[in-house]
Design a protein that fits this description.
Blueprint: E1 2-3, H1 11-21, H2 31-43, E2 47-51, H3 54-64, E3 72-75, H4 82-89, E4 93-96, H5 108-120, E5 127-129, H6 140-150, E6 153-157, E7 165-166, E8 169-170, E9 179-183, E10 196-200, H7 203-212, E11 217-218, E12 235-236, H8 247-257, H9 260-277, E13 283-284, E14 292-293, E15 299-303, H10 306-315, E16 318-319, H11 331-334, H12 344-351, E17 353-356, H13 364-378
Parallel strand pairs: 1-16, 3-4, 3-5, 5-6, 6-9
Antiparallel strand pairs: 2-10, 7-8, 7-14, 9-10, 11-12, 13-15, 15-17
Helix pairs in contact: 1-8, 2-8, 3-4, 3-7, 5-6, 10-13
Bound molecules: pyridoxal-5'-phosphate.
Pyridoxal-5'-phosphate binds at residues 53-55, 79-80, 82-83, 131, 157, 159-160, 183, 185, 196.
Keywords: Aminotransferase, Pyridoxal phosphate, Transferase
Family: Belongs to the DegT/DnrJ/EryC1 family.
Pfam families: DegT_DnrJ_EryC1
């Protein structure tokens, strides 16, 4: 089976993890701060906070922005359920903004119209979570300026987009947002098995996220409310969870980072090959905005008769997948009052969507096999 995505692990990666296993610290040692520093420097953010998943990163980001009961979070239907669930974690309610019909990310026109209406009704969201779907940045300049105009906060769900660029700069620099979040799940661009990272330029937000990822506990005397009682002393000064990343994960992440640009370049080369070689087939390839350099986490195409094409490809050893079932169509969200037809662009996109294999280790020969089988399947 040629999978739709998979990790790339070298002997250097293995050695990095083994070295940690033989060291003094399996958690809360030097690797996590080193990985955080490397990511912060790479994306040009002042702060990076490593956690055990992107979902946790989204959660602590929402907490840092004081999202709570009575508040509203907006994201897009075309994402993994975590982008919406984190609003519920905080006791907020969730709503959605439909996507563009060509790049499948949050539509700024729809966002603007929805904000205008919400403002007149006194129902503005506190936080919006645009998702850089497939590795392509949203129109952050417009989203950011709308957020400033309406006084709302922005968390970029950049789970797909480490190594991607927007207006020439790396995603994660938070030029038009408060916080950005990356995922290091094995199908994403680089991996720590499970893992995530939040980046921000804001020291106060970074501090709040650091506290909430580790029980709300601090050992920093400057942050304590009482006098230290001795070398053992710590204080819980905020509400928090245990969302820490392990040293093994951080060592793997650091080792993977040395190949990040290579991974993204290879994904782009493969995507360009798909763009070219799929031209003769009856499929719609994903559009790219001119201001964006995608990290190409996914290569989502549109096909007629999707269910049959999907089944035939799976039967022929092509591990295709579908990204995403619109979140508002999940039974759990439907029970909150969402209906079919609420976000028609995301629904129409979903009806014909297939993600075909794309990962750094995909060979040209295997890609040719994918194209050949896809050609057969789409000719019916
Ligand atoms: C993978 C993913 C997440 C969740 O990432 P985890 O690290 O698995 O928690 C969130 N949002 C999007 C868009 C994702 O693709």
């Amino acid at each position: 089976m040629i999978p739709y995505g998979r990790q790339d692990i070298t002997e250097e990666d293995e050695q990095a993890v083994i070295a940690v296993l033989r060291s003094d610290f399996l958690t809360q040692g030097p690797q996590v701060p080193a990985f955080e520093g490397a990511i912060a420097q790479y994306v040009n953010a002042k702060h990076a906070i490593a956690v055990n998943s992107a979902t946790s990163a989204l959660h602590i980001a929402c907490m840092a922005l004081n999202l709570g009961k009575g508040d509203v979070l907006w994201t897009v239907p075309n994402s993994f359920v975590a982008s919406a669930n984190v609003g519920l974690y905080c006791g907020a309610t969730v709503d959605f903004v439909d996507i563009t019909p060509d790049t499948y990310v949050m539509c700024p026109d729809k966002l603007e119209a929805k904000l205008k209406k919400a403002n007149t009704e006194g129902k503005l969201p506190k936080v919006i979570v645009p998702v850089h779907f497939a590795g392509q940045s949203c129109d952050m300049r417009r989203i950011g300026s709308l957020a400033v105009r309406y006084g709302i906060k922005v968390i970029e769900d950049a789970s797909h987009a480490i190594g991607a660029r927007y207006l020439g700069a790396l995603v994660g620099n938070c030029a038009y947002s408060d916080i950005a979040v990356f995922s290091f799940h094995p199908v994403k661009i680089i991996t720590t098995a499970e893992g995530g990272m939040a980046t921000t330029q804001n020291a106060e937000l970074a501090h709040r996220m650091e506290l909430s990822r580790s029980h709300g506990v601090t050992r920093d005397a400057d942050l304590m409310q009482n006098e230290s009682e001795g070398g053992w002393y710590y204080e819980q000064v905020a509400f928090g969870y245990n969302y820490r990343m392990t040293e093994l994960q951080a060592a793997l992440g650091l080792s993977q980072m040395s190949r990040l640009d290579q991974f993204v370049a290879r994904r782009n080369a493969l995507a360009q090959r798909y763009d070219l070689l799929l031209q003769g087939l009856d499929v719609k390839t994903p559009a790219q905005a001119s201001d964006s350099y995608s990290s190409y986490h996914l290569y989502p195409i549109q096909v007629d008769d999707r269910a049959r094409v999907f089944a035939e490809l799976r039967e022929n050893g092509i591990g295709v997948n579908v990204h995403y079932i619109p979140i508002h169509r999940q039974p759990f969200y439907a029970a909150m009052g969402f209906h079919k037809g609420d976000f028609p662009v995301a629904e129409n996109y979903y009806d014909n969507a297939i993600s075909i294999p794309l990962y750094a280790g995909l060979s040209d020969a295997d890609q040719d096999t994918v194209i050949e089988k896809l050609g057969h399947a789409t000719r019916g």
